[in-house]
Design brief:
Length: 484
C-alpha cells in the first residue's frame, strides 16, 4: 500500500470513529429540557431488568421515567455493574444512580440522596437441598456476596460472629447460581430481589427473616447535581400522592417475569430463547464486532508506529517504545478500562464516553501486543536487506518502507489475525464500563429469565461461530500473504 493510500485509510478510519462517538454523545444544550446521564444495574430484578424487546423496565426504571415526565427532564440510562456504576458517579462520569442503592451512613458521606423510595431488608438464602438450618451453620463455610451492595456490607458486620468466609460476584445471577450449584453455601440479598428471583426459577430458598431494614435512594455525587435531586424529590412526591408509585410497585412485586415481559407464554427451550431474544443477541453481536473491527484498526495503527520506533537506531525512540509496550502490555485490560473511564475523569474533571474509553482501552492494550510482534517481525528480516538498500542510496525510512517492511509484514500476518481473534474475546471485559456487547447481553437476559445454562450455551456458540470464521480467515491470509 503506497503512502497516499495509507493516508486515505487513516483519514477514513478516524472519520468513522469520530462519527460513531459523535452519534453516541448528547449535549444538554441541544435540548430545551435538562438532560442527565443516569446509571443502573439491569441485573437486579424486579427493580431493574431488561424485557424481551430490549427495553429497560422495573420498579426503579418506571419510577425514574414517571418522575422525568412530570419534572420535564430527559435522561440517558447507562447499565453497568452496581459497583462500577457507583464509582462512575463519584468520578463525575455519571450524573446519578438509580440501582436499588441502600442508603447507609458511609454512602451519605459521598452521595446526596433523594427522598427514600423503598423500604427493604436483608435476608439469607441457601440452595433448595441445603442442610444449612441457621446462620450458626455457616461457620467455616463460604458465602457469596455481590460487590458493593448494602447486603454485602451487612454480611460483613456479622461475619466475625458467625465465622463464615466470603467470595464476591459482580452480578446477581452468577451469585445465585454459585450457591445453587453448591460452590458457596449461602448468599445475602435484599428481600424483594431474592423473592423475585426464587419466584422466577432460581433454585434457592429463604433461610432468615429480613434484617438490617433500610431504604433505597436515588443518589448523586455529594455537592453535585442538586437540581436533579430537587426534581427527583418533587416528582416522587407527586407520583406518591396520585397513586402512580403504588401501581408501579404492585406491577412488579409478586409478579412473574412473563406478566410484564410482553409474552403470555415463555418458551425456555434453546430455540425458544434464541427466538425471543434475537434482537438483543443481534445487537450484542453487532456491538462486539464494531468494537473488534475499530479496535483492531486503531490498535494496528498505534502498534505499527510504536513497533517502528522500537527498532529505530535511536536510544530515545527505542526507550519510549519499549516503555509504552511494557506498560500497556503489562496492565490487565480491566484495570486499564477502569483507569481510563473512571480514573482519568476523576483527575481531570472531564467526562469520557464509554465507547471512547472502550476503544482507547483496546487501542492501547492490543496495540502494545501488535507493537511487540511488529518490532520482532522487522528485526527478523536479514540485516543485509537494509544494508543493501542503504548502499543503493535509499534513506533509512525509504529503505524501511520499500525493502524491510514488505518482508516483515509477511512474517506478521498470522500474528495480526490471531490478535484480531484475541481482541474479539477481550471486548467482553468492556461490559464493566457499561458497554452492552455479547457477553453482557447474555448476563442481562439471564437476569430476566434465570436460564443460565441455555443462554450461556447460546452465547458460547455465537462466539465460536465468529471465531471459527476468523480462524478460516487467518489460514487463508497466511497462505495468501505469508511465507508459504
Amino acid at each position: 500500500m503506497d503512502k497516499k493510500a495509507w493516508i486515505k485509510y487513516l483519514m477514513l478510519t478516524l472519520t468513522v470513529v469520530l462519527g460513531i462517538i459523535a452519534t453516541n454523545t448528547k449535549f444538554a444544550a441541544a435540548s430545551e429540557e435538562p438532560h442527565y446521564v443516569i446509571t443502573t444495574d439491569t441485573t437486579y430484578p424486579p427493580f431493574e431488568l431488561q424485557d424481551k424487546n430490549g427495553k429497560y423496565v422495573g420498579i426503579d426504571i418506571d419510577i425514574l421515567k414517571a418522575i422525568a415526565k412530570r419534572e420535564h427532564f430527559t435522561f440517558k440510562l447507562v447499565p453497568m455493574s452496581f459497583n462500577s456504576g457507583a464509582q462512575a458517579v463519584l468520578s463525575g462520569q455519571i450524573d446519578g444512580i438509580m440501582a436499588g442503592m441502600a442508603i447507609t451512613p458511609a454512602r451519605k458521606l459521598v452521595y446526596d440522596f433523594g427522598t427514600p423510595y423503598y423500604k427493604t431488608g436483608v435476608i439469607t438464602a441457601v440452595a433448595k437441598n441445603s442442610s444449612i438450618k441457621s446462620l450458626n451453620d455457616l461457620r467455616g463455610k463460604t458465602v457469596a456476596l455481590k460487590t458493593g451492595t448494602g447486603a454485602a456490607a451487612y454480611a460483613l458486620t456479622i461475619q466475625k460472629k458467625y465465622g463464615f468466609k466470603v467470595t464476591y460476584f459482580n452480578d446477581s445471577n452468577t451469585m445465585y447460581n454459585d450457591v445453587a450449584l453448591g460452590n458457596t453455601v449461602a448468599t445475602f440479598e435484599d428481600e424483594p430481589v431474592m423473592k423475585y428471583a426464587i419466584q422466577n426459577g432460581v433454585k434457592l430458598k429463604v433461610l432468615t427473616k429480613p434484617a438490617n431494614s433500610g431504604y433505597y435512594g436515588f443518589g448523586v455525587k455529594k455537592g453535585h447535581n442538586q437540581a436533579l435531586i430537587e426534581k427527583f424529590n418533587a416528582g416522587f412526591a407527586a407520583i406518591k400522592k396520585d397513586g402512580t408509585y403504588d401501581k408501579i410497585v404492585a406491577k412488579y412485586i409478586g409478579a412473574e417475569e412473563s406478566t410484564f415481559a410482553g409474552s403470555a407464554k415463555v418458551n425456555n427451550s434453546i430455540w425458544g430463547l434464541l427466538n425471543q431474544n434475537k434482537s438483543q443477541f443481534l445487537a450484542g453481536i453487532g456491538q462486539t464486532l464494531m468494537l473488534t473491527i475499530l479496535g483492531i484498526i486503531l490498535a494496528t495503527i498505534f502498534g505499527m508506529v510504536i513497533g517502528l520506533l522500537a527498532i529505530v537506531p535511536n536510544k530515545i525512540s527505542h526507550g519510549f517504545a519499549s516503555t509504552v509496550i511494557y506498560i500497556f502490555r503489562g496492565l490487565p485490560l480491566l484495570v486499564l478500562a477502569f483507569f481510563i473511564y473512571i480514573g482519568i475523569p476523576s483527575l481531570t474533571g472531564h467526562k469520557l464516553s464509554a465507547l471512547f474509553s472502550g476503544l482507547l482501552t483496546l487501542t492501547l492494550n492490543e496495540g502494545a501486543y501488535i507493537a511487540a510482534f511488529v518490532a520482532g517481525g522487522l528485526k527478523s528480516v536479514d540485516n543485509g536487506q537494509m544494508e543493501a538498500a542503504r548502499s543503493l542510496g535509499l534513506s533509512y525510512w525509504k529503505a524501511m518502507r520499500k525493502v524491510v517492511l514488505p518482508q516483515g509484514v509477511k512474517l506478521m500476518v498470522p500474528s495480526f489475525i490471531n490478535q484480531f481473534i484475541i481482541t474479539l474475546k477481550d471486548t467482553s471485559i468492556l461490559s464493566a464500563i457499561g458497554i452492552i456487547e455479547l457477553t453482557q447481553t447474555g448476563t442481562v437476559i439471564i437476569s430476566r429469565n434465570s436460564q443460565g445454562f441455555r443462554i450461556w450455551f447460546l452465547v458460547a456458540m455465537m462466539y465460536l461461530i465468529v471465531i471459527t470464521l476468523l480462524t478460516f480467515l487467518a489460514k487463508w491470509a497466511d497462505k495468501r500473504f505469508g511465507n508459504n
